[in-house]
Amino acid sequence: IQSRLPNVGSTIFSVMSALAVQHKAVNLGQGFPDFGCDPHLLELVTEAMQQGHNQYPPMAGVPVLRQTIAQKVARLYGHQYDPETEITVTAGATQGIMCAIQCSVHPGDEVIVIEPAYDCYLPAIQLAGGIPITVSMEINEQGFSVNWAKLAAKITPKTRLIIINSPNNPTGSVLQRSDLNALADILREPHNAHVLLLSDEVYEHMVYDGAQHVSVSAHPELAKRAFVISSFGKTFHVTGWKVGYVTAPAALMTEFKKVHQFTVFTVNTPMQYGLAAYLQNTAPYENLSDFYQAKRDYFRAGLSQSRFKLLPAQGTYFQCVDYSAISDLPELAFAEWLTKEIGVAAIPVSAFYRSGMESGLVRFCFAKQEQTLALALEKLVRI
Ligand code: PMP
Ligand code: GLN
């Protein structure tokens, strides 16, 4: 058949994970924890199944989970979403992102994507018939940042959506309140009234050095025109469960639900009940930044003994490094060499650029047990 996504192959995450398995390398490539979740969460999900919560839930998700999400968002970010009309539980963030794009982007619409960008945005835009317009982040000693004037210059009458992602995969950079204010200043212009926002906040609970996650939900002016995306997979160490959620004003959510209901109709019931009960305790997500900061610090301390140059890592469970002191191979070739010859898998940052732009960087995932990180570090410091 004639492909609708002719330039798409397997994702870099699948490719590098397979290579890691093949070469028995320590897999710091694909982002997922190598440790289990809280056993209490497993009990709560099991109880939900035993109590008979095994049939279709309502299309937007079980009411108690939507209410719990509304309370969580209101408590953390001060925005009250209506659980009936403004929250949908999704099959991971990926499905939320796909449906948000399909419901809002018409053929020929332009969508602004800030690069490096997570890999699911561009194919979703392409399937909608949209035209991705990319803006590169700038990089200096402080790490990656968005130049908002550069982004503003890309807005045209055809711009339908701007996608932002903070904490950012792969760079680990986080947007500040001043960034959201700069974006709000741009979108407040009457000639930009047609522009919507998609804010991918799946790493909202992984922000380091005392910084706070600045959610679009906490910015009333931006929240009015935004789909905000989150994922329980990231927050509770259960990436394979694929449960996330989307919040948006009712007018946007009405359109979102039209696509959601014919994409998956709804998401598995027992996990939703289990998660709703588990969310009653705020500690697991409130302590997550400390938990991952300890891993980040351990990994960075180890890498500081190597020839890799560390970039700042303010959020997410990713650490980008500059390998120019070690090799002048292109990023993919270097990541493959690292996997095969050194025994540590990484992800080339070029995979997050449509053009495949090279910056001499690879990304490591530090959501691993200390013994895994220690094993990887032992190999990395010897190069
Ligand atoms: N957005 C970003 C930035 C991600 O890193 C990921 C997961 N790697 C997702 C979305 C998708 O999340 P989920 O697994 O919940 O679909
Ligand atoms: N989001 C994860 C990462 O960035 C991978 C998820 C996936 O494999 N699609 O590594």
UniProtKB/TrEMBL annotation:
<dbReference type="InterPro" id="IPR051326">
    <property type="entry name" value="Kynurenine-oxoglutarate_AT"/>
</dbReference>
<dbReference type="GO" id="GO:0030170">
    <property type="term" value="F:pyridoxal phosphate binding"/>
</dbReference>
<dbReference type="Pfam" id="PF00155">
    <property type="entry name" value="Aminotran_1_2"/>
</dbReference>
<dbReference type="InterPro" id="IPR015424">
    <property type="entry name" value="PyrdxlP-dep_Trfase"/>
</dbReference>
<dbReference type="InterPro" id="IPR004839">
    <property type="entry name" value="Aminotransferase_I/II_large"/>
</dbReference>
<protein>
    <submittedName>
        <fullName>Pyridoxal phosphate-dependent aminotransferase</fullName>
    </submittedName>
</protein>
<dbReference type="InterPro" id="IPR015422">
    <property type="entry name" value="PyrdxlP-dep_Trfase_small"/>
</dbReference>
<dbReference type="GO" id="GO:0016212">
    <property type="term" value="F:kynurenine-oxoglutarate transaminase activity"/>
</dbReference>
<feature type="domain" description="Aminotransferase class I/classII large">
    <location>
        <begin position="25"/>
        <end position="380"/>
    </location>
</feature>
<keyword id="KW-0032">Aminotransferase</keyword>
<keyword id="KW-0663">Pyridoxal phosphate</keyword>
<keyword id="KW-0808">Transferase</keyword>
<dbReference type="InterPro" id="IPR015421">
    <property type="entry name" value="PyrdxlP-dep_Trfase_major"/>
</dbReference>
<comment type="similarity">
    <text>Belongs to the class-I pyridoxal-phosphate-dependent aminotransferase family.</text>
</comment>
<dbReference type="GO" id="GO:0005737">
    <property type="term" value="C:cytoplasm"/>
</dbReference>
